[in-house]
Write a structure and sequence with these properties.
- The chain is α+β, with helices and mostly antiparallel strands and 400 residues long.
- Helices cover 23% and strands 30% of the residues.
- The strands form four sheets. Strands 1, 2, 11, 12, 13, 14, 15, 16, 19, 20, 21 and 22 form a twelve-stranded antiparallel β-sheet that branches.
- A hairpin with a 7-residue loop joins strand 8 and strand 9.
- Helix 5 runs parallel beside helix 6, helix 5 packs antiparallel against helix 7 and helix 6 packs antiparallel against helix 7.
- The two termini are 22 Å apart.
């Protein structure tokens, strides 16, 4: 879970999700083993980002709305993109053009549909704060490679969805490790002006085509394991390896939720007793490899390194040799602290609400069910909207 630098003007989730990568603890090891899966669109408000989506058309903006009937509010504008060249700025209000070439309300989904429909000119009406009447603009979409050039430099692609016409935007990527572990990398951008969004880690699911759930790997368990290894490395460095390490108390397990899917219908969550919920609903290829280590591999590397130091200290004959080994143990402890800090930063924070205009990015870890026999994996997450008093169920689908 280390950080990888990207250019700041890349699409925001291309940057923030790419921070969720893994780095080996040993400089001598270079082979890394995350495989990133290709998403499959399951709705008309979903779009792809990455090298295989470079031919898709875009005008280079992100827009959102707080409620139906409002004009689209421009949240982001890509410098030198088609919308920017036409004069659209962050904070502008946008309308589409109707059959009489007059302003008509448009939401994020409709704008996306018009963008990706081809390279035909788009007619939009834009109004800046303080203006009385909107200005008619003709915008010529360009391929994503021209507007978001950094996307072509990645080795994987993401899928994003504008939810409820543009109240918020969810972007996701799914990575698979060699030990049947998966990492779902998510970003949620609250595009509203007043409403808070809330995530819940226990309401983020991975399922196969048959509806079997992937086991969730709690972040607290990973953190406790690393803290234990750090304590062992520090004990070796200080010559106190015989002292037992007492780990901190375990974090209470989250409330369990059960999820399943049916052939049709919209997602609805209903309680089934005992703090559990059932979710029913409808969901509507190639793989690429990028250099990363999975959390399980990171932990295994660290444990093996500490075990080898323990054995080396035990068999060492000279005090000078032992001193060097203890220095190595101290260096390992610092590397583990850095890994813990990076992992904590890249974990998807779900306890605090997402404020209006804010973005939340991070990863959630899973282990696949036994005898996985599926070509599709579905990620389902629940996002609660305080103003709408509504739970939104977002489905992202990936090809194995």
């Amino acid at each position: 879970m280390s950080r990888r630098n990207q250019r700041p003007r890349s699409v925001f989730l291309l940057v923030t999700l790419s921070l969720l990568t893994g780095r080996t603890l040993s400089a001598g090891q270079t082979a890394e083993t995350w495989t990133f899966l290709t998403p499959v669109a399951v709705g008309n408000c979903q779009s792809f980002h990455g090298p295989s989506a470079q031919d898709a058309s875009t005008i280079g903006i992100v827009g959102g709305t707080s409620q139906s009937g409002e004009p689209l509010r421009v949240i982001e504008v890509v410098p030198t993109g088609p919308a920017s060249i036409a004069g659209i700025q962050t904070g502008d209000s946008l309308w589409a053009g109707d059959s009489n070439d007059r302003p008509a309300v448009i939401d994020s989904c409709e704008l996306l549909r018009r963008e990706v429909s081809g390279t035909h000119d788009l007619v939009l009406f834009s109004r800046r704060t303080g203006q009385q009447e909107p200005t008619r603009m003709v915008i010529h979409p360009k391929p994503r490679r021209d507007v978001y050039p950094d996307e072509g430099r990645t080795q994987w692609k993401m899928v994003s969805e504008f939810v409820d016409g543009g109240r918020f935007r969810v972007t996701g990527a799914l990575a698979r490790g060699p030990q049947n572990d998966f990492e779902l990398r998510l970003g949620v951008h609250n595009l509203q002006t007043a409403s808070l969004l809330q995530l819940d880690e226990s309401k983020i699911f991975l399922l196969n085509e048959q509806g079997a759930e992937f086991a969730h790997q709690p972040f607290a368990q990973w953190r406790t394991g690393l803290e234990s290894l750090i304590a062992q490395a520090n004990a070796l460095a200080q010559g106190m390896e015989s002292l037992p390490y007492v780990p901190p108390p375990r974090t209470p397990p989250p409330t369990h939720y059960h999820i399943s899917s049916s052939a049709d219908g919209s997602y609805v969550r209903r309680p089934i007793g005992g703090g559990a919920y059932q979710v029913n609903g409808q969901t509507q290829v190639e793989s690429t490899v990028a250099p990363e280590y999975t959390p399980n591999e990171q932990m295994a590397q660290a444990a093996r390194g500490i075990a080898s130091l323990v054995e080396a200290i035990r068999t060492a004959r000279a005090n000078k040799e032992i001193a060097k080994l203890r220095q190595r143990a101290a260096a390992n402890a610092e590397a583990l602290k850095s890994l813990l800090a990076a992992g904590t930063a890249s974990h998807l924070e779900t306890t605090a609400p997402i404020a209006p205009g804010a973005r939340r990015t991070g990863a959630v870890a899973f282990v696949q069910p036994a005898n996985l026999n599926s070509t599709i994996v579905k990620a389902i997450l629940v996002v609660s909207d305080s103003a709408a008093k509504h739970d939104y169920f977002i489905t992202l689908q990936f090809h194995l």
